[in-house]
Design a protein that fits this description.
three-stranded antiparallel β-sheet, single chain, alpha+beta
């Protein structure tokens, strides 16, 4: 089975690709702003939707973001 064959199920419309950890990065050299979990939904051949449940990191809260 090739790598492309292994990815085919994720290209079907309506498929949810779960993500155990998603990170919203800040500027270079700064700590992440938000860390959480979520998923990517394949809405069409050209469209994806991202759902994300997270919370600000302690360092982002201290900097007032």
């Amino acid at each position: 089975m090739t790598f492309v064959d292994r990815l085919k199920p994720y290209g079907e419309i309506g498929v949810v690709i779960p993500c155990r950890e998603m990170t919203l990065l800040a500027a270079d050299g700064e700590p992440p702003m938000v860390v959480g979990r979520g998923g990517i939904v394949v809405e069409s051949a050209t469209s994806l939707a991202i759902g994300w449940w997270g919370r600000p990191t302690t360092s982002a809260m201290r900097s007032g973001r």
